[in-house]
TrEMBL record:
InterPro entries: PHb, PHb_sf. The lineage of its organism: Bacteria, Pseudomonadati, Pseudomonadota, Gammaproteobacteria, Cellvibrionales. Residues 10-120 form the Bacterial Pleckstrin homology domain. This is PH domain-containing protein. It comes from the Bacteria.
Length: 122
């Protein structure tokens, strides 16, 4: 499983093309809503879950996928970007996993992400 407390892994920028990395994992009727990438790792929000991708090794051919279903979210919070602090944050609390935190750089649409989670988790 991915170490969600390691901040360097999850400083994410929007990159829709990153969704291709999880295309083989999608279930029937599951749609990609948004995709974000850091240096090599990334996160894809779908209509059913969040899929975190951890690229491993020198060549990057080994990948770890962590599926976080919206139905297991018990609480979440967002922090929007400001004038001087352009980063935003998403904290999720899962019934079995505990706290998962993602940091987004740039102008991530954090309110849209909160809307996805609210729509599918509540």
């Amino acid at each position: 499983m991915i170490d969600f407390d390691n901040k360097t892994i999850f400083k994410l920028k929007q990159k829709q093309a990153y969704a291709e990395k999880v295309s083989d994992l999608l279930m029937d009727g599951e749609e990609v809503l948004d995709a974000f990438k850091s240096m090599r790792d990334g996160v894809v929000f779908t209509s059913k879950r969040i899929i975190a991708v951890n690229i491993q090794g020198i060549t990057g051919s080994k990948k770890a996928f962590t599926s976080l279903p919206y139905k297991n979210i018990v609480a979440f919070s967002i922090e929007t970007s400001g004038t001087l602090d352009i980063d935003s944050e998403l904290e999720l609390y899962f019934s079995e996993v505990g706290r998962v935190r993602f940091e987004f750089s740039g102008k991530a649409r954090i309110k849209d992400i909160a809307h996805y989670i609210g729509r599918y988790a509540l």
